[in-house]
From TrEMBL:
Residues 33-55 have a biased composition (Pro residues). Pfam families: FIVAR (PF07554). Residues 58-71 have a biased composition (Gly residues). PROSITE patterns: PROKAR_LIPOPROTEIN. The gene is vlhA.4.07.2a. This is VlhA.4.07.2 variable lipoprotein family protein N-terminal domain protein. Residues 1-22 form the signal peptide. It comes from the Bacteria. The lineage of its organism: Bacteria, Bacillati, Mycoplasmatota, Mycoplasmoidales, Mycoplasmoidaceae. Keywords: Lipoprotein, Signal. Residues 27-73 are annotated as: Disordered.
Amino acid sequence: MKRKNILKFVSLLGIGSFVMLAAASCTSATTPTPNPTPNPTPNPTPNPEPKPNPPSGGMNGGNTNPGGGQGMMDSAAQELTAARTALTSLLASKNANVEMYSDYAKIKNDLTAAYTTAKSTSDNTSAALEQVKSATSTLQTAIDKAASDKNDFNNQNADLVSAYTSLKDAVKSETTNLVRFVWCKLYSHKR
């Protein structure tokens, strides 16, 4: 799923770059015209009405994109779409990330709150680019902080973590045995 989102994002960037390049380029190819050899005329007649230079595009101030960009996604919209895609990708990792901290209540609660805040920004269709970028950055920081806090806790409390893990494994084993015992008793009574 994550790979698919990354491929979508890269594809959008590639298409967006191509579209922007096409929009920024000239509408038609121009060929340089050689300077004509001067033919001296005896006395040119002056024209009392000067003719303005027609706008020819490019540096003369004409519109180089006569379509007005209609039908094309502008740069800001592309950037917003890319930011929303990045945020959606991070939000997709919620279940896996939160589950990793099931034994760390405070870390899990902080991370869940960060995901909730980011989700509300993602759901807000009128959120601006900076809001989406900020939500993405804040969520990524919370994910990184959760991993760091877990490692710090484990390093500072190695004996406690080891004892907890052993106890958790023992309880899991006993629960499995108890379920088997109850299942066998129920099954034997039905015969």
